[in-house]
Amino acid sequence: MDTPVCDFVAAYEKSGAARLHMPGHKGKGPLGCEGRDITEIAGADSLYEAGGVIAASESNAAALFGASATFYSAGGSSQCVGAMLCLALQKSKSRVVLAARNAHKSFLHAAALLDADVRWLWPQPYSLLRCPVTPDMLEAALAALPEAPAAVYVTSPDYLGNVQPVSQLAEVCHARGVPLLVDNAHGAYLHFLPKPAHPLDEGADLCCDSAHKTLPVLTGGAYLHLGHGILSAEEGEVRAALSLFGSTSPSYLILQSLDACNRYLAGEARPRLAACVKTVAVLKADLAAQGWTVAESESLKVTVHASKRGWRGDALANFLRRKGVECEYADPDYLVLMISPQNSAEDLEKVRGALAGAGQGSNVFQTPPQMARPRQAMPIRTALLAPAEEVPVAAAAGRVCAAPTVGCPPAVPVAVSGEVIGPDAAAVFDYYGIKTLRVVR
Q: Does the keyword Flavoprotein belong to this entry (predicted)?
């Protein structure tokens, strides 16, 4: 497969042209990549008005993923999440979006900027990161609304590797004329498995992938895919939506990385992924044999329920770090390892050996604190943009959440802008190490 963006930049680098344009390093610098870091010069195309090499590369990506159209993002899936929400609202008379509660904070930011009215799918018992949505639950939630929402929004896979039944959810949505939007940030590789399992394969109308999370792409590289469902959008509409949430100076290093990835996906990706999935399955089985509880998850994530073996997940992460293993995410309960075909056999042996040496921890197992569904006192937009102050969690009860306080990873808020902080929320904040939060003045 051709790589038009990479080819153009390589030719320009070799041309020796005097660079009297941005960026200021002029192709020279200590990192070694500056020669290929350019801007929208003649022939380089422009991401939000693409009609040349970028458009050709995106067309290659769409064919590889089986999308009706694919658009690049140099601002990660966060940029694509905003664009998806914007497109859904533009195509509907409703401002309501029905969303699974474990949404990334970029969804909340976009909802605030676009003035969406978010209604939450919130299964019990409460879990910060996991929000399993069943077809029956979705059907009941849709039936309870006075009119069809602009969209249904779910995250799949989530940070722990849980996967939603996207095909069944799509059927429920489409029967009511509602598009299904999927944050697939952690699953760009899923289409290239022996049995494709990408949200596009299962009927999603719009989908975003963080290519950089699971494919050999530089950080920030992502895709916005249009499916073959009930939501249609013209190219100009999609690019305009993306431009609302992205820089006017997208990184050409990231764009080249996405372009080069097409060649990988068209060639070696499928056999390498198939082999990697088998290797990861063996690792999961070996860890289970060592006595670890390995949660069910998508193929390339290893999610260890550390607290069931007497470890805090973050303490286990520190233990692994001393053994030369850096994890993706850890909290009081879980340790998450993200694996790709680019990991070596030696990498996985380090994991196997380190966890074998960890043994039984000394903590008493406890379940995360539960939180009642909070009351929404004001719209997300009003609260997020209101004057606010930072207060200790202990002093926040009864106050209205302003900007959600959350780190990345996992960037899933405990409390959402506009919600009243209940007394049980303090225990949840403390459990996840959040000591202060911003509340409306």
A: no
